[in-house]
From TrEMBL:
Protein name (Swiss-Prot/TrEMBL): UDP-N-acetylglucosamine transferase subunit ALG13
GO molecular function: N-acetylglucosaminyldiphosphodolichol N-acetylglucosaminyltransferase activity
Subcellular location: Endoplasmic reticulum
Keywords (A to Z) from UniProt: Endoplasmic reticulum, Glycosyltransferase, Transferase
EC number: 2.4.1.141
InterPro entries: Alg13-like, Glyco_trans_28_C
Reaction(s) this enzyme catalyzes, per UniProt: an N-acetyl-alpha-D-glucosaminyl-diphospho-di-trans,poly-cis-dolichol + UDP-N-acetyl-alpha-D-glucosamine = an N,N'-diacetylchitobiosyl-diphospho-di-trans,poly-cis-dolichol + UDP + H(+)
């Protein structure tokens, strides 16, 4: 009889298990507009990378982003496209909460908003973070890079997204530690330059 998994082992197995069937991908841009990310995830290179990894459903929370909605049909759950290439796509603007969507997702591709990152890493779910370079002072890039260096997520750019999806299985994502608000605040303050990291 095998011994029960420790919490960190259970978290690690939930992040990357070869036996887990992967089907659902959630893309979220939060409350901002991120046209480049929404357009990229609906493009053939990203869809091909998702198909190659075995994903069959793509849900996109697009916020106010603009994209080509040709080929989509308005249904109760949002704009829907059932494709012949093996991926069903649903696109909608906003929901009161994304918690249920995070729980259904086998992979999350997100802007680098700190709230989204924390929500996803606590579940845990594999997370690819694409900072929005159009935002003022690009704090998203700093946060994505810091958490990427710690191994909790895979940072990417819009143009590198297909490769990030393809290589994620080779990544050894480190389970995010249990919530400690003061430690996250310290890390965030350090990354933003509010405190001296040497002192």
């Amino acid at each position: 009889m095998s011994e029960p998994l420790s919490p960190s082992q259970a978290s690690a197995s939930a992040i990357e298990s070869p036996l887990r069937t992967r089907t659902n991908v959630l893309v979220t841009v939060g409350s901002t507009r991120f046209d480049a990310l929404v357009q990229a995830v609906l493009s053939e290179p990203v869809l091909a990378a998702l198909r190659a990894r075995g994903y069959s459903r793509l849900t996109v929370q697009c916020g106010n982003s603009e994209f080509d909605a040709n080929g989509f049909e308005q249904q109760e759950e949002g704009l829907v496209q059932t494709t012949e290439n093996g991926i069903d796509i649903v696109v909608w603007k906003f929901r009161p909460s994304l918690e249920e969507e995070y729980e259904k997702a086998d992979l999350v591709i997100s802007h680098a908003g700190s709230g989204t990152i924390l929500d996803v890493l606590r579940l845990p779910r594999p997370l690819i973070v694409v900072p929005n370079p159009t935002l003022l002072d690009n704090h998203q890039q700093e946060l994505a890079d810091a958490l990427g260096l710690l191994g909790h997520l895979r940072p990417s750019t819009v143009s590198e997204l297909p490769q990030a999806i393809e290589t994620l299985r080779d990544s050894k994502l480190v389970p995010f530690p249990p919530f400690n608000g003061s430690r996250f605040r310290e890390l965030l303050d350090e990354e933003m330059g509010y405190v001296d990291s040497d002192g």
